[in-house]
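Table 4 source record.
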Amino acid sequence: MLKVGLIQTTSSDQPADNLQTVSQMICDAHAQGAQFIVTPEVTNCVSTDRKHQAHVLSLQEDDISLRVFCELAQELGVWLMIGSLALKSGDPDGRFVNRCFLIAPDGSIAAEYDKIHMFDVALSETETYQESKGYRPGDVASIARCDFGTVGLSICYDLRFPHLFRDLAQAGAQIITVPSAFATISGEAHWHVLLRARAIETGCFIIAPAQTGQHVTTVGKQRKTYGHSLVVSPWGDVLLDAETTTGVSIIEIDLETVETARRRIPSLQHDRKYQAPKCQTPPQKTP
């Protein structure tokens, strides 16, 4: 059995404050026996103001939050997945990266993943996002073999692209993490059903730590996120729902149920190649 600790927080746009809050939550999860601890997307800074981000964010090699999290993982002897950190990329266009880190119990970075799919949407007349203007998308999928099993990495909007999840499962993932800062409008409509669908399609455990509530920002527009950190079984059952409060949720999962689900419905073995769809028009009637 693997004991997992999910951290649900309401990050502000101040990395130092968020580091203090999340570090304490990680310690609390460890005190409750968690061996694998996961945090949400943009753990270090929730902000839509690019000037503010340029002021408070760092390059990876200079980032204080990442250094502290690596030290904390080593001190506690736990696997720690930082759902993502917003970081400077060093690119001339000034865009940032939205990067997930899987940290091993010795404090080393076991895997990194840059969010591939950018959240460029118009949810309503008053709520629009153009993530690609501020962030550089990644182009490499990532899995890591841990001592407890194999973990595939994704971030938030990636959830809507099932081929990524299938590729992770085909590459050996038993768990796929989906750290998120999901909008409330789309969260209410789609969060649970999409996470359950990805679990069913892949026969993986889906572990999705989330940001929640009204985020305090010193500059720029306010954000509200959906919460509901979830753990979904390989059969599609919701095993844990953290609702909308901040805090630590603990759950034990049995990775043997991954193979059980895949034996019952071995769809990962049934992929077939096919031609791209062609639009067929009915024959014209003779006058």
